[in-house]
Amino acid sequence: MEGLKAFFIDTSIDMPYVHGSHNSGLVLLSILVSIFSATMSLQTAQIARKAENAWYRHVAISTGAIALGGGIWTMHFIGMLSFDLHTHVNYATALTLLSLLPACVASWFALLMLTRREVTLPHLVMSGTLVGLGIGTMHYIGMAAMQTSLQMRYDPLTFALSILLAISLAVFALWVSYGLQHTALNSIRRLLISGTFMGSAIAGMHYTGMAAVRFIGTPDNATASVLINATFASFALSTFTVTVTVLVFALNGLMHSRKLYQTMEENNLKIEDSKSRMRAILDTAVDGIITIDSHGLIQSFNHSAERLFGWTAEEVFGRNIKMLMPEPDQSRHDSYLHNYQTSGTPKIIGIGREVMGLRKDGSLMPMRLAVGRVDLPNELLFVGFVTDITERHTLEASLRETAERAERAATAKSTFLANMSHEIRTPMNSIIGFTELLLQGDLTSIQRNHLNTVRQSSRSLLGLINDILDTSKMEHGSLALEAIDFSLKGLALQIESSLRLGAHAKHLTLSTHYPSDMNEYFRGDPLRILQILTNLVGNAIKFTEHGRVDISFSHEPDGVHVKVKDTGIGMTPQQAESIFAPFTQADASISRRFGGTGLGTTIARQLVEQMSGRIEVESALGCGSTFHVLLPLPIGQKPPALKPTTYHQALPPLKILIADDVAQNLELLTLTLGVGGHTIVMAHDGDEAVEKFRTEHFDLVLMDVHMPRTDGLQATRLIRQYERTHSRPHTPVIALTASVMAEDRKTARQAGMDGFAVKPLDAPRLFDEIAQVLNLERRPSSSREQDRTAPPSLLIDWIAGTSLWGSKTRLAKALDQFLSATAVNHPLPDEADRSVDWEATLLSLHSIHGAAGNLALPAVTELASTLEDMVRTGWREEARPQITQLRLLLQSAAKELQASEALVVDNKVPQPPMLEPELLAHMQTLLTCFEHSELNDAVLEKVCTGLESLGERAQVQALRTAVDTFELDHAHTLLLQLVTTHATEPQA
User: Fold this and answer.
1) What pLDDT is recorded for position 915?
2) Same domain, 674 and 772
3) Whole-angstrom Cα distance, residue 159 to residue 535?
4) What residues contact 372, with CB distance under 8 A and at least 6 apart?
5) CB-based burial of residue 193 (10 Å sphere; 0-12 exposed, 13-18 middle, 19+ buried)?
6) Of 342, 369, 337, nearest to 353 (Cα)?
7) DSSP secondary structure string, 753-810?
8) Has residue 249 been placed in a domain?
9) Same domain assignment for residues 772 and 827
């Protein structure tokens, strides 16, 4: 407490205050010294902040702190010397020197803070507080060193204000110094402003502290020499401080210069290293690199350029780059450079292009040239990168030659396929046509069976040819796809119906799952989708010896997903990878064991891909296979009902010219068209056809395309020319050809032909094509035979059935056997019956569906199929009234058959009863056939004849029904019962 009384003003002392005065010149000198020291110290701080070496940084901060601390101390004592109390004043040496320490410490904190990269507000406040306290401490220790006869006391309020002001000014000065570092001012301006602020702040702290001191007592008389001594001392101190500060700045400058020199040496070494690396890169580069100046003179030429052009760098240095160019580029090159430098429009600069280069030996080199611009301070350079593309040109030429060979091979392949199609279809036209004609006559069952075998084999061969041609079309992208609305559900049922018999013959279960909540109608090409699925399901049945084949449909976000799963032989992963390749099967034994060409899956894949879908397979050897078909089919609408086409096109009697170089084809066409009352004129080549056309008038010309001498195309051109010359009306010409390629149709149209009939000829299609080119209205055939024998048909498709069964008599017999035994063999529940065995009903519907399809009962087939699907999917109550409708349809079909029974004439001569041993032998033979899923018509006929001779007509009818509906298991059971019965009967 006593110490505070001795420090602050004591009101109990009754003595006068002594007021001193400042020498304004020395005050100004103290401020200038403060600003100078602060400015030099801040420059030292900048050097320290840029120094990467920690030791240099600490030396710079420490020496700068000594300079700034000395400046603060000098400013303080110059300010003290400028203060005149009119009394003697001395200073204690120890305290005076001690006061220098807090000034240096405060300066060190200030400079340390200013060298930081980032400064936060707490850092700024803490550093400013330490600096302010340090300067305040230095000031009051220096004041305490004063020795005078007067008492020195401090006003408490002013004293506290001086401390706060010292801290505030220190924070403000540091904030200004740091903040200016992030402005757009240049470094000198930032340094002067920062030094002025900091020096002024330091001086302000001193003179604020001087305002807090009070001197009490009576002063001595001071002489003028005191002022002179004070002035001299102030200038001496200023000079010393400035000298020390300059030395400190010089020392730091030298250190910084030394560091810069070291950095420059290091950079030079790096530059040399970089140049060495660049030279190594340029010399080892594969491409030629050439540098030229703005006049086109070569400045550098790397080793690759020497290798490419044959010149050495010494030979080309300083010469114009155009020496490496052939004409006309050699003459134009200088204009390129001049145009670029004057207009700035590049023609070769910055553009990669392929040009020819000129070697030293005069040979040309194809190369790719890219030119870039390099802007140097006093020079403009251009760098060219040259790549030898001789090998690429050679490769491109080879590829072009390969492509041309491939095109020639593709053309040869197309020609071969067209010729193959023609050469095979031409004899097949006779084989199939005459077989169809023979089947329309009266034949024995054995003869009919053999002819059916011939027809089936011919159709199989024709199917193989069509598969090969389809594959070729899809490879060339010339197969057109339809986009029509169709019933996918109906297509699924059609596949099941057509392939169920084959599966049943192998004792396989074939099931189709079409979800009830899935849309039925889609838009696409139903014929090609049917072809895809028929191939896959047919293969599944073929390669499955026991188990089942399942077809499931689902609608996914990206389209329709069809899955065909079987329990067949399966495949290894290697076999699965190649299963979609043409003519490929799992292994060589497959073809021998199961038959087939290996084209089915290839065609399926190509069709799926052409529809923008995908096909995948999952398989394991011995565990079956699953094929996934995903087709992006959009939702469609229910298509309009198609008019039935179960008739031949009726044609009026026509005079027809037929030209064909194959005699059998002429005979077949004459027989086919002769029954319609047409007049036929034959020509054996194109010349004869043109000659007959000139001498006679014809309603129609059937022209074979491929004939010797003048072919059908040229003959047609001559006919069209003759019509134009002699103003004759246009006579329709239909092309007869075994070629089915799109190009053939186009060529025929261009030659002037109106229609197109493909061999082997299909009579109904030929009649339709004739009617189309003659613009005849489509109507049922009105031939005399049909008018006389065929009553209007509503339920039985006699034409389709006759074509399938070979004769109307055979069809009528099969229909009679089926319809008369349906109630017994395939019972259907009454609508009022509430306890229905739906499993038995489903079996009956399934059997009726399959049998009706083979017996030309389209309405019965469609309704049975719908009911089968409804019962299978759980819509049983809704199916009840339609089952009644199906029963009525069957009854109506039976009545319709009875109305036409007079047409079926049984010309068989009554046979005497067959002996039991002979009958049993025939039945045993037939049993063996059934056990192998085979059918022998001759043996069946003998068994039925023998049983009828014994009066067992009901058994014969049941047996024939089972066989005609392809229920061979049921037929086997019936025959086994008959064998047992006759074997146990006593012999006559």
Assistant:
1) 63
2) yes
3) 110
4) 349, 350, 382, 383, 384, 385
5) middle
6) 369
7) --EEEESSP-HHHHHHHHHHHTTPPP-B---HHHHHH----SS--HHHHHHHHSSHHH
8) yes
9) no
- Residue carrying structure tokens 């403000």: 172
Q: Check if the beta carbon of residue 567 is closer than 8 Å to that of residue 546.
A: yes
**424 close to 328: Cβ distance less than 8 angstroms:** no
Contact present, 979 and 923 (Cβ < 8 Å): yes
Q: Evaluate whether residue 775 is within a structural domain.
A: yes
Contacts of 310 (CB under 8 A, 6+ apart): 359, 360, 361
Is 831 exposed, middle or buried (CB count within 10 Å of its CB: 0-12, 13-18, 19+)?
middle
Other C-beta atoms lying within 10 Å of the C-beta of residue 220: 14
Query: In angstroms, rounded to a whole number, what is the distance separating the alpha carbons of residues 74 and 235?
Result: 10
Pairing of strands 89-91, 213-216: unpaired
H, E, C per residue of 594-611: HCCCCCHHHHHHHHHHHC
Please write the tens of the pLDDT for every residue from 402-417: 888 888 877 777 667 6
pTM for this one? 0.38
End position of a domain, from candidates 783, 817, 832: 783
Q: Is residue 435 part of a domain?
A: no
Confidence of residue 555 (pLDDT cuts 50, 70, 90): very high
Runs of H (alpha helix) within 641-682: 663-674
Q: How far apart are CA 956 and CA 621, in angstroms?
A: 46
Residues 891 and 930 in one domain: no
CATH number at residue 338: 3.30.450.20
Written as six digits, the tokens of 117 are 């990269």
pLDDT tens digits along 199-240? 777 777 777 777 777 777 777 665 444 444 666 666 666 666
**What stretch of H or E contains 685?**
none
Q: What is the DSSP string of 35-76?
A: HHHHHHHHHHHHHHHH--SHHHHHHHHHHHHHHHHHHHHHHH
DSSP secondary structure letters along 469-526: HHHHHHHTT------EEEEHHHHHHHHHHHHHHHHHHTT-EEEEE--TTS--EEEE-H
For residues 182 and 38, state if they share a domain. Answer: yes
Largest CA distance in the chain: 184
Kindly report, residue by residue over 436-449, the tens digit of the pLDDT: 777 766 677 667 76
666-674: Cβ within 8 A, 24+ apart: 668/429, 668/430, 668/433, 668/434, 668/437, 668/761, 669/702, 669/761, 671/437, 672/433, 672/437, 672/761, 672/763, 672/766
Number of domains forming the structure of the chain: 6
- CATH classification of the domain holding 528: 3.30.565.10
Q: Give the Cα-Cα-Cα angle 86, 91, 96 (nearest 5 degrees).
A: 140
Could you read off the pLDDT of 822-860 as tens digits, one per residue?
877 788 888 777 778 888 888 888 778 777 876 778 888
887 and 923 within one domain: no
* Token reading at 25: 């010149």
Q: Is 553 helix (H, G, I), strand (E, B) or coil?
A: strand
Tell me the three state secondary structure of residue 630: strand
CA dist 553 and 495 (Å) reads 13
Give domain status of residue 428, yes or no. Answer: no
Using the predicted structure, report yes or no on whether residue 922 has a pLDDT greater than 80.
Answer: yes
Q: Is 456 helix (H, G, I), strand (E, B) or coil?
A: helix
Phi, psi of 147 (to 5 degrees): -125, 115
Radius of gyration for the chain, computed over Cα atoms and rounded to the nearest angstrom: 58
| Residue labelled with tokens 């179960």 | 646
CA distance 308 to 304: 6
Could you tell me which of 850, 802, 804 has the C-alpha nearest to residue 826? 850
Closest to 285 measured CA to CA, from 309, 315, 307: 307
CA 117 to chain centre: 52
Separation between Cα atoms, residue 8 and residue 153, nearest integer Å:
5
Q: What's the domain range around 596?
A: 480-627
Q: Which of 97, 37, 44 is nearest to 249 (CA)?
A: 44
Token match 């006679």: residue?
A: 696
